[in-house]
């Protein structure tokens, strides 16, 4: 007789008995299921869901910020090699006046601050460059501006011309730029909860009152605080000092922002008002690895000498002053100092030799001249007239007369 069916039946019975015992082991008895245990399980489940939701929300926020910033700077997502290696870097901050006081053109850069950060030294330098500083403007195809106010570089070629002009002026490399529309200042200050500054003297501006000493500023107050110039006894130099105060205060607080919601506010402002070649990853790396640089900030400005050139007020920086600022920045960047040899120092040398300038005299220069770029003779109306006439001999005499004065009129 075939025993196979019988064996199969015995095997099924043994397996069923084993499974039943195993299920009893893992199953809790009704006596052990207490109301408190059930509540704890529900709470645990809710906690797990909350954590999962928070992680998902944080990830969404992170990638939204990432996309907003990188999308605004040409989808540059990689962390730069210098920042990744924690090397010293330089950043040019350009405060442009588009949209302020009714302006809708390219505008000039009323604020120019060159910052250098050295994470090994935990040191930052911030050098303000007065907007009226005489400089050899780079990036002008027609060489219309040649030696002119440094802030005009932005109008000619945006941040690229500004970076090239200041690089040549101080003989320092510039790695990054931050082009900030002045309309962003109010939002930035508000996003970090306001800033604290040391007001140098009592003054009122744009319906805002400021009193000497420590004062907390919101966004509206901060805009008024950095824009006032005429009531400051130091003029534009005093305004630059107040601009650096606010920028340093915003940077300090932005570095200490720890919540993603605040980062999102800052990212939205960046996306709307700031142009930069820094990627999101660059900014995160700066916040993490360059934070110590904010503990030691050496701020200053290029001191110019008043000069009247063809009826307009210009600030002329001495070769000694330019060399001093170049040395300070280069040292913080870990570079050897070099003797400046550019068009600005050449103009100073020629004026010293031919016009015998007295740099220690506080009175404005009345005899500072602009020399031809290709010779050691000063520009003159007759020289310029002859050049213009030869270039446009077919023009009418009235057109020629108008064109001849263009170079001199740009100083007015």
Spans of 5+ residues with little confidence (pLDDT < 50)? 48-64, 100-104, 381-412
Structural class label: alpha+beta
How far the N terminus sits from the C terminus, by CA atoms, comes to 123 Å
Query: What amount of the residues lies in strands?
Result: 15-25%
The number of distinct β-strands equals 14
Instruction: State the order of secondary-structure elements, H for helix, E for strand.
Output: HHHEEEEEHEHEEEEHHHEHEEEHHHHH
As a percent range, the share of helical residues equals 40-55%
Which descriptors would you attach to this protein?
412 residues, alpha+beta, six-stranded mixed beta sheet, two-stranded antiparallel sheet, 14 helices, 14 strands, 17% strand, disordered C terminus
Topology:
Elements: H1 4-26, H2 35-72, H3 81-84, E1 89-96, E2 109-118, E3 123-128, E4 134-136, E5 147-149, H4 152-170, E6 176-181, H5 184-191, E7 195-199, E8 203-205, E9 208-210, E10 213-217, H6 219-227, H7 236-255, H8 260-273, E11 274-276, H9 280-289, E12 297-301, E13 304-309, E14 312-317, H10 319-332, H11 343-355, H12 381-391, H13 397-404, H14 406-409
How would you sum up this structure, described in words?
There is one protein chain. The chain has helices at residues 4-26, 35-72, 81-84, 152-170, 184-191, 219-227, 236-255, 260-273, 280-289, 319-332, 343-355, 381-391, 397-404, 406-409; strands at residues 89-96, 109-118, 123-128, 134-136, 147-149, 176-181, 195-199, 203-205, 208-210, 213-217, 274-276, 297-301, 304-309, 312-317. It has 412 residues and is of the alpha+beta class. Strands 11-6-1-2-3-12 form a six-stranded mixed β-sheet, with helices on both faces. Strands 4-5 form a two-stranded antiparallel ribbon. Helix 12 (381-391) packs across helix 13. The longest helix is centred in the first third of the chain and has 38 residues, at 35-72. The radius of gyration is 33 Å and the shape is elongated. Mean pLDDT is 77; it is low at 48-64, 100-104 and 381-412.
């Amino acid at each position: 007789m075939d025993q196979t069916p019988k064996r199969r039946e015995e095997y099924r019975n043994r397996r069923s008995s084993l499974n039943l015992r195993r299920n009893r082991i893992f199953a809790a008895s009704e006596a052990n299921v207490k109301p408190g245990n059930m509540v704890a399980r529900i709470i645990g489940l809710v906690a797990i869901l909350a954590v999962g939701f928070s992680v998902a929300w944080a990830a969404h926020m992170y990638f939204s910020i990432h996309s907003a910033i990188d999308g605004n700077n040409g989808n540059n997502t990689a962390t730069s090699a210098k920042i990744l290696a924690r090397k010293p870097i330089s950043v040019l901050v350009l405060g442009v006046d588009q949209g302020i006081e009714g302006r809708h053109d390219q505008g000039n850069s009323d604020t120019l601050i060159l910052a250098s950060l050295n994470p090994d030294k935990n040191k930052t330098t911030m050098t303000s460059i007065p907007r009226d500083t005489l400089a050899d403007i780079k990036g002008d195809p027609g060489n219309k501006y040649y030696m002119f106010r440094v802030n005009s570089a932005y109008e000619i070629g945006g941040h690229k011309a500004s970076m090239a002009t200041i690089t040549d002026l101080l003989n320092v490399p510039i790695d990054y730029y931050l082009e900030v529309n002045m309309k962003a200042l109010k939002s930035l200050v508000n996003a970090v909860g306001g800033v604290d500054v040391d007001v140098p003297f009592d003054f009122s501006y744009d319906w805002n009152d400021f009193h000497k000493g420590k004062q907390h500023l919101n966004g509206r107050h901060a805009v008024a605080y950095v824009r006032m110039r005429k009531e400051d006894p130091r003029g534009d130099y005093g305004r630059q000092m107040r601009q650096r105060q606010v920028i340093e205060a915003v940077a300090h607080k932005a570095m200490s922002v720890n919540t993603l919601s605040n980062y999102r506010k800052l990212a939205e402002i960046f996306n709307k008002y700031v142009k930069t070649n820094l990627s999101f990853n660059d900014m995160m790396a700066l916040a993490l690895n360059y934070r110590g640089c904010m503990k030691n900030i050496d701020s200053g400005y290029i001191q110019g000498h008043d000069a009247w050139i063809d009826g307009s007020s210009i600030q002329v920086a001495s070769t000694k002053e330019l060399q001093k600022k170049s040395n300070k920045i280069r040292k913080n960047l870990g570079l050897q100092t070099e003797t400046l040899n550019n068009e600005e120092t050449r103009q100073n040398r020629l004026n010293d030799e031919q016009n015998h300038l007295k740099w220690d005299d506080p009175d404005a220069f009345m005899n500072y001249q602009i020399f031809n770029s290709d010779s050691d003779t000063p520009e003159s109306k007759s020289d310029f007239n002859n050049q213009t006439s030869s270039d446009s001999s077919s023009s009418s005499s009235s057109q020629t007369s108008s064109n001849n004065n263009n170079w001199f009129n740009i100083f007015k």
